[in-house]
């Protein structure tokens, strides 16, 4: 069984005003098959944690470590992390002009697996996954994220999750900007992937809404760059009732 | 600021617009001197507005020298409804689309003895003319492409091998016709090529004009589209890949001269290697007569290494208050780090991610040509350019 361990992680970013400390000692362990929700107010550093796991060059790890089955992830390049089994569903997926979804997916799959997928079964897999995510087949011919609506971008992220089959996936506010129908489709997709591959999930969200569709095993409340409290699913229910005020008050 | 070199400041890696304000040219484009006689032009010094970004010293054979104006070797492939023939200087079609505005173009006009006349009639017509054996003696050439009223078709001009060539290409698009003209410069490394394309677009007619430049030492293709009749539409597209030591230039001109005309100019280029250069100048003139005009022009350059220089200069002149739209954009920048991150986060190596991004950047133009077989070949040529540049 695989494990993703985050230990005393401190992360900063360079801004025009100088170095800004964002993560201040994050500790978190996720086993394969577990679903962890990270909830927290805007600006608390959730996306920073997601980007740091994926290796975005803007974020500097000051100290601490991220271990995937004991291997130091922070020493790996972005693409090495993905090939090692980490996946980030982005909050704001970028457009890539002139690169079709079809070409992109095949290139990514080939890179992750180290060999090109068998054509027949690949085409079938892509088609059925798109169907289940209610994506029009015409999407395959479109350029990556170009002119996609917010909901279409998120479905496209989950499509990649399903096809690339990572060991651990971080979903950064995949629920934000989705209407109820889209939220259901996306959640069903995530649950399906979890059932099929048994991956570990780190579900980042601002709202409790998505947790009605994807049940977390653990909930971590994230405030001012670290985990302020953790518990089971019942913690999410409490947050739903009380909001983040209690934690914000404490940290102010 | 209207031009950039690739010495960008650290961190300034996203494509950034650097020219969006109104631009007031010194002299209106419509008053530029024009003549078919080379003797009417002064010797080129390199200080002239139309030459100041061009390595004129390498071009003396074409600007000053005598040119061989005889019929040149070519390989033509045509289907039904297209005729290709050599005609004399007195052919009525010659001079119907434009008059030279610089000495190189005038030297070609004064020097040609026979012109290649390509005529498209009917619908869905196709013709390809390949020139691959022009040799290294300085030549003049003249081509007239005529699309009969209501006809539709595509004419592809492909250039390979060595050449020292000055030429004019006239394009006459009849009323209601829809014509695509693609000129591919895939010359050998030593080629010198000066070309002016003059297009006259008829009533409710449409021209899609594409300039693709990959090979050659100095390649300067200047297309102009004259919208002389109501409802005319011109799309001027271009893509170029400038490697070490190459100079690829295009001075584009759209002349809106009738009501309800439309133009779109979109040129994209990549530069890689020491001394790789590109020049794009885009003039759009909307005359008083051109009410209800809709126009947009843009140029984007992707800088792939140090030591390159891309000049990008849009000029917009508007003489009427009644327009439907007019805009321009110009940007030169390095890779978008967010695009690279997205691809790498899916396991794709940095090198392959760069290749995908550049190919995609240029493919946006290729995808608009509308000729699948040619598009396929051009994408292959872009791959080859990237492979060669990365191997270097
Ligand atoms: N690239 C960056 N440059 C400057 N500041 C940043 C950058 N990324 C994040 N921050 C700052 O760090 C804090 C945490 O941001 P983020 O991780 O996006 O929070 P969340 O996802 O929880 O809303 C915010 O104050 C934000 O402005
Ligand atoms: Mg966020």
From TrEMBL, chain A:
Segments crossing the lipid bilayer: none
SMART domains the record matches: AAA (SM00382)
* Alphabetical keyword list: ATP-binding, Nucleotide-binding
> Which GO MF term does the entry hold, naming one?
ATP hydrolysis activity
One Pfam family named in its UniProt record: ABC_tran
Q: Does the keyword ATP-binding apply?
A: yes
Q: Where is the ABC transporter domain?
A: 4-249
Locate the coiled-coil region(s) and give their ranges.
Answer: none
Under SUPFAM superfamilies, the record lists: P-loop containing nucleoside triphosphate hydrolases
For this chain, the family text in UniProt reads: Belongs to the ABC transporter superfamily. Ycf16 family.
Q: Which PANTHER family match?
A: ABC TRANSPORTER I FAMILY MEMBER 6, CHLOROPLASTIC
The name on file for this protein is ABC transporter ATP-binding protein
**From which organism does this entry originate?**
Arenivirga flava
TrEMBL record, chain B:
Q: Which InterPro entries match?
A: Fe-S_cluster_assembly_SufBD, SUF_FeS_clus_asmbl_SufBD_core, SUF_FeS_clus_asmbl_SufBD_sf, SUF_FeS_clus_asmbl_SufD
- The superkingdom of the source organism is Bacteria
Task: List, for all copies, the residue spans of the domain called SUF system FeS cluster assembly SufBD core.
Answer: 137-361
Q: Name one Pfam family in it.
A: SUFBD_core
UniProt-listed GO biological process terms: iron-sulfur cluster assembly
Family, similarity comment: Belongs to the iron-sulfur cluster assembly SufBD family.
Its protein name is: Fe-S cluster assembly protein SufD
